[in-house]
From TrEMBL:
Signal peptide: none annotated. Residues 183-237 are annotated as: Disordered. It comes from Neomonachus schauinslandi (Hawaiian monk seal). Residues 200-209 have a biased composition (Basic and acidic residues). Residues 596-688 form the FHF complex subunit HOOK-interacting protein C-terminal domain. InterPro entries: FHIP, FHIP_C, FHIP_KELAA_motif. Belongs to the FHIP family. This is FHF complex subunit HOOK interacting protein 2B isoform X1.
Amino acid sequence: MLSRLGALLQEAVGAREPSIDLLEAFVEHWKGITHYYIESTDENTPAKKTDIPWRLKQMLDILVYEERQQMAAGEAGPCLEYLLQHKILETLCTLGKAEYPPGMRQQVFQFFSKVLAQVQHPLLHYLSVHRPVQKLLRLGGTVPGSQTEKEEVQFTTVLCSKIQQDPALLTYILEGKKIVKRKKSSKEPTTLPREAASIQDKDHPRSKAPDMSPCGARALSAQPPAETEEEPDGAAGESNLITSLVGLCKSKKGRVALKAQENLLLLVSVASPAAATYLVQSSPCCAAVVEHLCQLYQSVPPFLDPADVAALEGVSWRLPSAPSDEASFPGKDALAAFLGWFDYCDHLITEAHMVVADALAKAVAEKLFVEILQPHLLHVSEQSVLTSTALLTAMLRQLRSPALLREAVAFLLGTDPQPAAPDDGPRTLCAHLIGHCDHLSDEISITTLRLFEELLQKPHEQVIRSLVLCNLEGRHYVARGSPEPESYEDTLDLEEDPYFTDGFLNSSFQPSAKPPPAPATNSDGKTAVTEIVNSFLCLVPEEAKTSAFLEETGYDTYVHDAYGLFQECSSRVAPWGWPLGPTPLDPHEPEQPFFEGHFLRMLFDRMSRILEQPYSLNLQVTSVLSRLALFPHPLIHEYLLDPYINLAPGCRSLFSVLVRVIGDLMQRIQRVPQFPGKLLLVRKQLMGQVPGEQLDHQTLLQGVVVLEEFCKELAAIAFVKFPPHGPHLHLSPPREGHV
């Protein structure tokens, strides 16, 4: 097309220079457009039915063809200079704003996009280009849901691509009008050499171009006087590339919204530190993104069921609508929209330049977490607490970016973890949330426990350190004044407990399938871990066990699951450099008061009431404890999984809590007639094998089932954590004759 146009022009003009003929053709097409506004009287004819689109296309083709002919010279040709000197883009922007003829704005967006994309000569540095670009961005941003959304997003795509290639362009496109004026007065070269003679500054906007006047009063009346173009310092609400992109992200047209999000992602990932700093300090980037996030949060109904929130999965910024195969519930679309945009913010922070990522993460923490979410978490209304906790859990489940995770952890746990005292009041948000885990409302307790379980799966060391490790350091839970035990006879003497008979302790460990590989090269260590596994497997007395009657609940299943979870947890914490074994105790060191911390105290208290609590609550408590036990830290392994630890006076461990629960259970069994039959029936009900019906002592019976399964799970975790797969335990050889 372009070569044919050039050939025709050369044939028509003979020996004259092709560049002169191209300029005449270019000017002729531009005059044809301006004459339309003088001659036309029909205000209803759409722009696409006039010759304006054709003439704009010819002007574009001439510019591209001319540039190809000028490649050797490496400078702008006469047609491009004419475009710049006579402010054609400024005039087109004005015509687009007037929307005359109807659909003209669409034509202007298309022309701008194609010129910037197809003309290779750098254009956006010129005042007569980036100023109308800014105006066109403001024009698009003021019409939400307009008919030109498709053209607007194409226009922003070209701009973001140009900025990605040359980050220095960012300031030209985003700068306000006051900055434009300052640049012009600073003698910076913002014009072509031949353009400088024609373009002065905004105080003298008129040029000698003969074709600027025929545009007609109807169209040019939309252009503000030159002296009113300056904006005051700190002009608020001005639309620019950032606000235009965020506005297009809200489009109801899925493709438009997705493309706008991709463009914004491209913009914040610029590698230039200067451009990233400009985005943070001199643009509304962070504020606009986070403001939309807060608006979407506020639009989520306050009466959401936490179970519905937990069940909604698969929402991402590329697919913000909720999956259609899931059950519908009131507020589902609003919830999906919020989680989709939160996922997008998280992705922005992941991909953005570090300067932008940190600023955006801090903005999310300040505006959403602190100003909106925290008052809801601390509200007296149970429904407000439920909904906000469930939403926070859903956000944590989607969170991937290190910067936003760091802010979320600081928001929930504080920035300086210190060992807690038993009488410390709930002065922090974390203390309040731990208190919610032991709330009078079981639903609030379950929802908050889910929050902590999700938090424990995040790759941030401060989580486990704040909640658990800062209280275990020093091993003050171990009795002082005597050397480390040399054998199991020197440790906790379980034989003295009336519920631990010889037959109970001598039960053998026989998994039904081959478990993951154990450290066979260390026979002493293997025997030692078998002792620990046996201690948990044999903790529940035979008369309270029912899993042997059903095939689906074998111990080997727990070993398989625990092995996968432990490998995942170990890879997550590997960068933290944890020690392989606990620090040896000084036998001469005096004993100090030990407090397990508010989090473990709450879990132990809940565990001690397992026979009295609802089934769903027991499942959540044991799930959190299992997550904790998986961590490959020697202190966690010792405190939660070593039954033979020599506890200091007044201290308790997970195993000692379970021992007391078993003692309570043995007394309660005597008061329940036909206990074994009822217990088996309840297990079958929980597994869906028989219809559910209300039974006497149902809470107790369900608690016994959970207790049995939890002990098997702890045994499996202890088994897969043994060296070389876990922390090195300094365990002595077992007694002779013991399995």
